[in-house]
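Quick one - inputs below.
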Amino acid sequence: MATIEGENYKVEYNPDTATIAISGALRLGGLGEYAPIIEVLNAALDEHTNITLNMKQLEFLNSSGIAMLSKFVIEARNKETVDLTLCGSSDVPWQGKSLINLQRLMPKITLVVE
Amino acid sequence: MAETFGNYEDISQARTQNQEYLNLSFSPSSIPIKQRWRNNGLSADFLGDYFTTFFPKSENDPASLRRQSEIKNAVSYIANELLENAMKFSDERLNHPISIRLMLDKDRIIFSETNGVSREQADSFRTFINKVMSEDPNELYIQQLEENAMTDSSAGLGYLTMVNDYGAELAWYFEDVGDNGVAVTTEVKVAV
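Output:
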């Protein structure tokens, strides 16, 4: 299990289940500051073909964070062999608005918003 | 010289007695940006929380709870993006304060954020604004996500998410302030 913990957020990657869980509020300053999280996401892409990204507990994400997610989704799409499931919550307003755009980047994403 | 882009309404002066305003102002050079970054989130969350007062919820009405949570999130997201941009692009040499003002209108919330930038920065921002004004925002957004992934950047994404995901209307006001500087005001209007 790889874990990154910041002031208000946590990223946990469980290689056994190929699941990455991101929780809290992410407002880092620019994509450069997201590099450690991008590394974890890329590690999952290198090791697995069926990956789940759980964001149910991610209350806030700034636009640089959205850029990070888009980059991850585009890389998963370009690998062609990767199946990606995004889990979100309908109780978290930004997810209802913004997650759908990721499906436009990679139509075969499985989007589960409960 | 001054120029406007989009339907700029200028909320810098109160128009009637009974409108709700909230102003925050920061001096650009008093604390290094790295330490100040944390304040963006704190200020944005405060603004989001504050405005929920005007959209009361009733525990028995799930729609009112959802509406309040949507408004809080929208205010917090937009204010955070405006402040992040202001902190990133303000030119400290100009010593121009960063200010954000929120006004509650009848059926909308209006944000107005001002900061000083160099003339070069104003020129490249003008190019971006013209693109946002003339192209389909939805297409431009997806195109920008693809481009950003190639170049490891998140430039312009804040404004495009405001338009696409939050249905915001954007307008700008540029005004020369001497020392080769330009005061840029970004106005964001969201229906509530």
